[in-house]
């Protein structure tokens, strides 16, 4: 796979263990975001017969949703071979899945008339270049629809889970670094998209509970698999204490629908100029 050097670290993670975990737990991750899916797809406004690009498509739920919503074709691109393999195994007529770096992938010019990304567009090493490449791949006037996380202090799940494992507040990510919260400041989103040639940029807050498991044991296993790397270097007693703190936090968030934490996203819509 041809990856821009600015994305080498993300490629190593997503085309490695992290992507492997997401691929194995595809349904769980889809369920965790399920409350966002109707609003996200409504905002995408998939047009009948259109050609849609799904950026950072993962295991392809949103790519499949695009053809179900009437797109004639939908191409999902993702760094992770494992996630692309799951997506391909679930393909629908009209869906195509490609392993690649959306920042530099040689999409044909103006090949798509809509682009979507559900929490897949915050990991670019050079966001300006990535969104310019996406703008180039869109026919003029085509909509771009992104779901991105609001800042960590509005996302109870990250503070609570990482805090339980770390035994204190999680370290703040460096500003501007690729990662889940890199587009959490609307002024950054607006600036990056405008620079890449997008217009009519709108940023709307959407909040929903995020689901982590059917009960405390189930969520505990899942979160330890996801964030267990935070315990590297701890001795047995330290690991046990962190596991216990996590269990307490999960128990505090057990609802009749399972373990859920508050979360908040920005739904970003914009229109491409076809330039880039
Ligand atoms: C948080 S996951 C979201 C996956 C999927 N959109 C979903 O909603 O389940 C982020 C995805 O973005 C992908 N990704 C990150 N950087 C990328 C890049 N430069 N090009 C293509 N995919 C990328 C990752 O491999 C990962 O699958």
Automatic annotation (TrEMBL):
This is Methyltransferase. Residues 52-141 form the Methyltransferase domain. The keyword Transferase applies. Keywords: Methyltransferase, S-adenosyl-L-methionine, Transferase. Pfam families: Methyltransf_25. It comes from the Bacteria. GO terms for biological process: methylation. InterPro entries: Methyltransf_25, SAM-dependent_MTases_sf. Gene3D superfamilies: Vaccinia Virus protein VP39. GO terms for molecular function: methyltransferase activity. PANTHER family: METHYLTRANSFERASE, UBIQUINONE BIOSYNTHESIS O-METHYLTRANSFERASE, MITOCHONDRIAL.
């Amino acid at each position: 796979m041809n990856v821009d050097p600015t994305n080498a670290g993300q490629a190593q993670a997503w085309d490695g263990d992290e992507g492997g975990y997401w691929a194995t737990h595809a349904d769980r991750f889809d369920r965790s975001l399920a409350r966002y899916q109707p609003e996200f797809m409504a905002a995408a406004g998939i047009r009948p017969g259109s050609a849609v690009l799904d950026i950072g498509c993962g295991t392809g739920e949103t790519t499949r949703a695009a053809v179900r919503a009437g797109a004639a074709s939908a191409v999902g691109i993702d760094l992770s071979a494992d996630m692309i393999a799951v997506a391909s195994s679930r393909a629908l007529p009209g869906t195509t899945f490609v392993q690649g770096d959306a920042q530099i992938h040689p999409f044909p010019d103006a090949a798509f008339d809509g682009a979507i990304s559900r929490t897949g567009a915050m990991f670019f090493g050079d966001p300006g270049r990535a969104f310019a490449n996406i703008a180039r791949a869109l026919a003029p006037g085509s909509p771009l629809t992104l779901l991105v996380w609001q800042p960590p202090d509005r996302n109870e799940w990250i503070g609570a889970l990482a805090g339980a494992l770390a035994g204190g507040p999680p370290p703040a990510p460096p500003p501007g670094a690729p990662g889940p919260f890199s587009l959490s400041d609307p002024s950054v989103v607006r600036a990056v998209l405008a620079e890449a040639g997008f217009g009519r940029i709108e940023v709307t807050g959407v909040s929903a509970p995020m689901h982590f498991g059917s009960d405390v044991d189930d969520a505990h296993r899942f979160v330890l698999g996801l964030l267990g790397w935070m315990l590297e270097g701890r001795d047995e007693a330290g690991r046990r204490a962190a596991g216990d703190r996590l269990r307490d936090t999960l128990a505090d968030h057990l609802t009749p629908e399972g373990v859920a934490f508050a979360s908040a996203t920005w739904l970003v819509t914009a229109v491409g100029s076809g330039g880039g």
